[in-house]
Structure formats: C-alpha cells, structure tokens
Amino acid sequence: MSNEAAVPTASPFLAACRGATPSRTPVWFMRQAGRSLPEYKEARAGTTMLEACSTPELVAEITMQPVRRYGVDAAIFFSDIVVPIAAIGVDVQIVPGTGPVVAEPFRTEADVKRLRNLDPCDVPYITEAIGLLVKELGDTPLIGFAGAPFTLASYLIEGGPSRDHAKTKALMKSHPEIWHGIASRLAAICGEFLRIQVEAGAQAVQLFDSWAGALSEADYRRFVLPHSTAALAGVAQSVPRIHFGVGTGHLLEAMTETGAEVSGIDFRIPLDQAAKRLPDKVLQGNLDPAVVFADDAALLAETDAVLEAAKGAKGHIFNLGHGVLPDSDPGKLKLVVDRVHEATAR
Ligand code: CP3
C-alpha cells in the first residue's frame, strides 16, 4: 500500500544531504546491521551471507534491526558489494572471517567479457526487499549502496582481499586497456545496481570505495575517477549521493569530482580540516570505530569533539569513520546516537 504521508520530507538525514538545516544532526552507522547485534546472529543462523542477501524477508528484518534498536536517522539496505557480481553469474563466495573470494580471478581480455550488464531481472529479491522496507520504515529513509569499481575490481583481480592490491595495480600499468575494460563494466553494473535500488524506493545512495586510499592521486584520477563518476551518474538527478573511502586524505578533492553531494570522511582526517578543503560539500563521519570500546566518558567526549569539528562544514551527517567493528557493544552505539540527538536538537 503506498502512502503519500510516508514520504520523509522532514527527515533530518535527507535535509542534511541536501545542505538544508535539519531539526537535529542525523546519525547512522556504516555496518550498523551485522555481527555486533545478537538479533542479527540469531536471524542469520544457518544461512550463508549471499543466501541471506537474496531472501527479501530476511533482508528487511536485518535492515530494520539497528533502526529499532538505535533510533538512527537512516537505514542502510542489508546486502553486500559483491551481490550484483554474484547475480550476473560470477563465482564469488563471502567467506566468514575473510571476505569475498573469487574462484576464477579476472586478469585477461577474455575475462572482461565475463562481466555482462546487470538486469533488474537478475535481482528481483532486491526490489522485493526494498518494497517491504519502504512500508516498514515509514519516515526513516533507506540508503541504497554499491561497491565502487576500484574496490570491486580489486576483489575480482586479486581473487580475494588484498593488503597491497599488487595484481590490480600491475594490471593497470601493464594492460591499461584490460583495466579500463573491467572498471567500465563494473561501473555499469554498480550504476545499475544503484538505479534498481532507487527505483524500488531507496532515498539516497552511498558508493563505498573502501580501498581507493591505496592509490596515488595521479593513479586515482587516471584509472578510477572516470569509472566512479560513471557509476554515480545514473542516479544523479534522483537522490543524494554519498561517496566514501578509507585512508583517502590525499584524495578528498579528487573524489568530490565524481559529483557526489556528500563526502564520507574516515576517522584519520579531522572534520574541521575536511570542511576547509571541501567547503561546498556536506560531510559524513567520522568517529573512530575503535573509540566505541573506550569507557563512556571518553566515548561521549569523542562524540562531542566530532560534532564540534563539524561546525564549519556545509552540513554534517554523524557516522563512524569506517564500519562498526564486529565486537562492538550495541549499548555504546545507542549512547552515541542519543548524545548526537540531544546535543544537536534545534
Ligand atoms: O549495515 C550495513 O552497513 C549494510 C551492510 C553491508 C555489508 N557489507 C554486510 C556484510 C555493507 C554496506 C557492506 C559493504 C562492504 N562489503 C564493503 C564496503 C564497506 C567497508 O566495510 O569498507 C566491503 C569491502 C565488503 C566486502 C566484505 N563483505 C567484507 C570485507 C566482509 C567481511 C568478512 C568477514 O567475515 O570478516 C563481508 C561480509 C559481510 N558483509 C558481512 C556483513 C554483515 C559479514 C558476514 C556475516 O555476518 O556472516
């Protein structure tokens, strides 16, 4: 049942994304759903990650769990960056404790052709899960997401998680045409994955380029920026776009050239410095996820410090500076949400 009144025009999160003044500083956490929540472990028991991601009722339940528990200002769709890759038939598994593992890594011209376009028919469970969520979320907006071409390509080329991304960088330099072939096909897949989520009802998107910080600015501009820009272009006219990377202090300005309205800032760059460098961008971040393990007084002091540092920014969405760590105490995250809301209510 569609309900006009459920359109979250007064959402602090959407107001902040647009650079308007929200009724309070909105807060959500990257990886807010997942292993830190006992109800997540219970819901996931006996199901692989990719099975869970293709079961609409389970996706909706897991997406809702942190919204119920914390009262965050946005939900993030429960899925994974490799879901669209698996959906086009690539043999990829998510190995617990390791991450995505690709059976036959991508390294040749012939491999480029294995990356066909994503079609909405490949992921009917995404559309169905978002349909369920939009009804259940009411005024709380849903953030759709995708992995950016570089971060996805690194998994595909390395065959799994990598510290140095050596094979990926070697391919860029030795065979730029193969690199650009893989990255441009991934950009089309990511762009379509985002578009499908928006079409189904997601009201913002985040592009995760978690490993982009491994590149120099020159290589980022030459090998990655055009592809991330293409991935984000498809939803440019419809919803606000957040772009996030880890260890990307040297890439902040370059990453804004993708056109994203909101810049996700990791915990290594103070928000006041980011605000000076990106005066036209709304900032998202950036409490160090490890600080959640500190005692309450220290945690609240750090939360206040993030709010203070964000004061010069065009707008601020409170978040961690990377994902929630699996052993985090949910009670501590709730403390942060309440503090942000109390300290910023207008
Ligand atoms: O709440 C949310 O933020 C939404 C869900 C979400 C997941 N993965 C669920 C997940 C999001 C946004 C992601 C993105 C993702 N996946 C990224 C980019 C964000 C980042 O953290 O930098 C990356 C690099 C991946 C790849 C990936 N998938 C990794 C490294 C892992 C962890 C493997 C492990 O067990 O340590 C996954 C699996 C994964 N994705 C889990 C969850 C909840 C854990 C699986 C489980 O609970 O069994």
From TrEMBL:
Residue numbers binding substrate: 31-35, 80, 155, 210, 322
Cellular component GO terms held in the UniProt record: cytosol
Highest taxon, organism lineage: Bacteria
Stretches that traverse the bilayer: none
Keyword Lipoprotein: no
Main location: cytoplasm
Catalytic activity annotation: uroporphyrinogen III + 4 H(+) = coproporphyrinogen III + 4 CO2
Pfam family for this entry, one: URO-D
SUPFAM superfamilies (UniProt xref): UROD/MetE-like
Molecular function terms from GO: uroporphyrinogen decarboxylase activity
Domain Uroporphyrinogen decarboxylase (URO-D): 26-35, 143-159
GO BP annotations listed: protoporphyrinogen IX biosynthetic process
Positions of the record's site feature: Transition state stabilizer: 80
Enzyme Commission identifier(s): 4.1.1.37
InterPro entries according to UniProt: UROD/MetE-like_sf, Uroporphyrinogen_deCO2ase_HemE, Uroporphyrinogen_deCOase
NCBIfam families noted in UniProt: hemE (TIGR01464)
Family assignment from sequence similarity: Belongs to the uroporphyrinogen decarboxylase family.
Stated name of the protein: Uroporphyrinogen decarboxylase
Organism from which the protein derives: Glycomyces algeriensis
Gene: hemE
